């Protein structure tokens, strides 16, 4: 990153944080008490702040990552500032943790874009920065920056894990994967994705070697025909039957395998993963269109990478019984960072659209309240 780019990006991060703080202040003034899922998250975090780590609300289905990080960040501040009373681990202070994650997400997304597109000299620093800014303000993710939900932290640790995997720091990536799982159990899928990219890379190398011997096309150019599919299946079977290939894969992915084994042990001891009860299978036509669009825009990626990404994408979205837009945050961001950085006019249009949606969402949340017939408390529209 050149010095000019550092200065501009630092200023961009500062402005983003300032605007987010102003919105945070307004939302917190209007909704001081815990709202929706916060009625579970806030009291649980406050118990952890009091050192009551053995007390757990059985209604909570996530692991305690958000609460542990909150205590780890708040306690030193409380000690240094000598804070006492209700301000310590208040709803507002707990929500502020997600503002920090929002800034972190902007930075991590920018680093991922730079890493993935570092060979493309046509992508200017301005386009990289605006692309990261636009993605960090993705409306579904950005809205939950202002509430005490797990989305901002889950996204941060998952993207951080992927960044480390891109740099080949797989032990660090696996540790960050544990942090991501502590925020949301289904992030084990993205741990598998990081491991899968390593396997896909080795398969690419093996395929290229075989292609050179036979003077055939590269993985990304395999025709979408029955014969092409059969050729890939035969290659996969041959690859998996070779002991040296298995050894190389295990040695490269053992940190992720360790995390997966620990997670399986947890699931067995915990008697499974708790999920919601509303079916998302009605969205199948939407999944089909999204899959076609993803594969079309990612056609420059290798075949084996596409297989890994598609498998993880399906596992993260289709089986979900609780249909919420928040479940599509990570699939969308991981998809977007891989496609070529759009032109500056398109980025400005996207950022403007996201800004308008965010403004409308915050406005409706604050000012367009309503009441249920059997409840006098103000209810608010949200994602």
Describe what you observe in this structure:
- The longest helix is centred in the N-terminal third of the chain and has 28 residues, at 3-30.
- The protein has helices at residues 3-30, 38-49, 65-81, 91-116, 125-136, 139-143, 151-166, 170-183, 188-214, 226-241, 243-270, 284-297, 303-317, 329-336, 344-367.
- With 383 residues, it is mostly helical.
- It contains 15 helices and no strands.
- Helices cover 68% and strands 0% of the residues.
- The chain starts with a helix and ends in a 16-residue tail after the last helix.
- It is found in: Endoplasmic reticulum membrane.
- Its main location: endoplasmic reticulum.
- This is Dol-P-Glc:Glc(2)Man(9)GlcNAc(2)-PP-Dol alpha-1,2-glucosyltransferase.
- It is an enzyme of class 2 (transferase).
Strand content: under 5%
Looking at how many chains there are and whether they match, the oligomeric state comes to single chain
Total beta strands: 0
- What's the overall average pLDDT, rounded? 84
Distance between the termini: 36 Å
N-to-C SSE string, H for helix and E for strand: HHHHHHHHHHHHHHH
Low-confidence stretches: 276-280
Query: What overall form do the CA principal axes indicate?
Result: globular
Please count the helical segments: 15
Helix/strand structural class: mainly alpha
The value of Rg in angstroms is 22 Å
Largest sheet: none
Proportion of helical residues: 55-70%
